[in-house]
Amino acid sequence: MAAPLTLLLIVAVTIRAVLFRSNLAELISERVEVVSPLNAWKRVVEGLALLDLGVSPYSGDVFHETPFMIYLFHFLVDYAELVFMIADGITAVALYQSIQTYNKNVFRKQKYALESDRYPADCLELLRSPKEMFYIPLKVAMFYLLNPFTILSCVAKSTCGLNNAIIALFILCTLKGSALLSGILLALATYQSIYPLTLFAPALLFFLQRLYIPVNLRRSSFWFFTLQYAFIYVGSLVVITGLSFFLLGSWDFIPSVYGFILSVPDLTPNIGLFWYFFAEMFEHFRLFFICVFQINVFFYTIPLSIKLKEHPVFLIFMQIAIISIFKSYPTVGDVALYMAFLPAWSHLYRFLRNIFLVSCVLLACAALFPVLWHLWIYAGSANSNFYYAITLLFNFGQILLVSDYFYAYLRREHHLTHGLYLKKKDGTEATLVLK
Amino acid sequence: MAAHRSGLSLVCILFFSSLAHPSNCDTLEKANDNKAEKLSISEVNTNGGVAGEDLNERQWLSTDVEVDKSDGSKNSETLTPAPAKDQFQEELVIRPLHSGDIYASFQFRTLWDTDFLREGQKVSHYRLFPKSLGQVLSKFSVRELHISFTQGFWRTMQWGQPFIPSPPGAELWVWFHDTVSDVDGNWKELTNVLSGIFCASLNFIDLTNTVQPSASFKPLGLGNATDHRFLRYATLPREIVCTENLTPWKKLLPCGSKAGLAVLLKSEKLFHSSFHSQAVHIRPVCQDERCTSKAWELRQTLNVVFDLYTSGQGKKEWSLFKMFSRTLTEACPLASSSKVYVDITDNPEGELFELSPATPLLSQAVVLGDRRTYSVFDLSRAETFGQLRSLNLLLRWKGDSGDMLRPLLHAERYVAGFGLQTGEIHTVIYNNHPYRAFPVLLMDSVPWYLQLYIHTLTVTSKSRDNKPSYIQYQPAKDRHRPHLLEMLIQLPPHSMTEVTVQFERALLKWTEYTPDPNHGFYVGSSVVSALVPSMVAMSTNFTQDQPLFSSFVPVKEESSYFVRVYTEPLLVNLPTPDFSMPYNVICLTCTVVAVGYGSFYNLLTRTFQVDEPSPPLSKRLANLIRRMRGVPLLA
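^ inputs. structure came back:
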């Protein structure tokens, strides 16, 4: 398996290197779909320039990266292209290995269940064969590396690629069972962009399941492990934040990074739902709606964790997808991360209801983004509503996609316990509905 | 008779001062050539003819007056019983410009020997100094205040340097006294008060357009305050200046618009011009040459450029009446001096134009690095007005004027780029000096909604990189403060230096756009301040009776003079949202969020069940009856 992966990496790096050298790179790095005020490379360079001038990068409103990013690129600014290619490579390899591990787990569980005869007889066609599972990790890596969204994001040197790498490494460490590394990486991901905070729940569920600790609030073992993991997470978060303080000698980065993410002061258009909504918001409702929209990201964590407590990896996918849809400054790089997981759920394909519609919508939107942007900003023959409409549709498509996969996952689980061909009481073929 | 006498004594002062300091070219009012000198003397003689013999005595007397003026208040107190602690001077300079336009610059100066900032002592007796401004000074502990309202743009390349430069729109800069603790609070209140005094929209000055330049705006008066925490600078480039600003400005003058030069200030003519700028400058200055005591100086200036060439059917001639639709009939009785200067430097032999009535008095002054010759009309002398009791200066061009000397320092600015996403500000500074390089301070204050990228800053002169030796940059905070960029750039001789910086345009909230948002947003002028090498030696000593127009900026060294050049303000378009959409956007976005919420809620709370069709209504009714009867239900 190593050879195809290596080949894939070489192809991916070649594509990126070629694009870096072409004059498309500059065009791509200005695209609002690819870079947001949070992760634009231009702003990283600006932050470094401010530091050189002896001005705190956080004294203005251009730079919103964390202090770690400053220090990383303080040394690596000349090798930025390399850094972003390596980050993409790391993400792909981490996802590859994670899915490999996950598939092994799934297969083992399926074998035990099969041996203990827990599946209904007509469900055999739902079971997953090693043959079809063999290429899934490679497909995942390919979906990430060759996804145009990832390529664009990498060529634009959006620091979103680095955040993706951290999240991918976190997933890998979680699936490999290392609570310490997982906690540290999760803290790092949270430090970078707050939202990965919601991944705490699936990671905890995964470890509990792995250690055969039942989720029972009366059991001390449950509390012991939960506190242990929370301690690792919070501890590393405190250490990282403290280190940042000592790097710069001030707490200025807290309002400038996290305040900026949460209060959405910059309304530069992006593919998300926030910019136009808050550009058009009535002033006295602004705070209320900011709270509503931000809570939306964190809101689904608890019900999803309850519903999917047996399936933490799918929960991770759901959480990442929800973050990328509802975060305040989304870019296509965020979308690419959860899309990389889609091959891992290829066995859900038969239960997807409107995958054709959704793919058409997403493809059409991806094509229309630059067109309508051009019409609005450069040609002046359209206005902001055109671009807004397409972001709305794009998010609608993403929501449909994610909820469709969620539906398919739940339905497959239902079939695995109740049989594939359900019958009504009178013996005719039954239809399954949500009630 | 009294007017006559004072007029005579003034002439004597001037005459004697020319004898006393023959090298003092600033204040020198000396005859340009023998003929003029003879004329001047004969003028003195004919005037003195009435008094006859006591001419000598009077000359001495007037010299005494000059002495005690220059020796400070101590002498004057001993000599005169009730010393007027305040004095008022008025002056009009008319300079025919090479483009055929006429530049008229009024200056009114009130000097008052008092201290507004003294603790516990309220200044309540006002004579010449306007009370409204005096109270503002003491209430807000203002050390120096400069405010200007300008309509139109000063075209440096065609018109040369103005005596007092000002940017289009309104400009306000204030140095507060260093005892002020809440500078921002004082500033906010001060702008609101000034807004009321001048009927202007100065109340739109807030933190988002106020900056604290570290080097460009040093105090012009006494005191070497260097802590720029006490300085506030703001411009409103969109401010429209009109009659309602002129009327309160005129009311600050001791004579109002009733007498003196101010009768010429009729708004219907002043605003029918290519350039109009009115300003108020208040600062502490030295009372005398030795600077023993401090006085407050209120300088009200009004500069106007008339385009008489195009409106005059191609005839290049002007008169006071043509410009202002008024003539001068008297000086302001409260003024200690009242003069009209006409720049005749280019016309030494009278071959270019003809000025009437002819005046024997000539004056030379070194102003803006150039030695200029002026014809002087002293309004405090009755014979200035001649037989008709009115003075209507008339200038008729005979030939075509020669080429103008290009101003040594010149700057312009524009926005490059297309589309509404990014752009680039180009500032071009010209050094037209043939062999001298000199440094300039460039100050740019850019509103926050244009996000500057300082790493894209380039400075090139003669197509080579010219690294600024000093950069002070304060990045903007969204909705809180603007960008401030100050640079010290060395301009090579005879060169063009281009400063570029890229910016990104922000999308604002729909309520933050000005009315008519597609008109664009103004970005205030950038300010180029420099000490330009002078062609002639500047006079560094301070004297009371030098013309006002040459004494505004203190000269520190002989070899250079201070110039401030304002560039054009920029008009930048920003992307706009659709202003009619707030309800629609709120509804549509919330719908999409609700679709997400709804579908997740559905999947989270419901479970899969086999769809059993509900039995028909008749069956359900039958079962209901059966249940009541207690018999088994139908299947």
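Chain B has three domains: 86-397, 409-572, 581-607. The domain at 409-572 of chain B is CATH 2.60.40.740 (Immunoglobulin-like).
thumbs up if we can close this ticket
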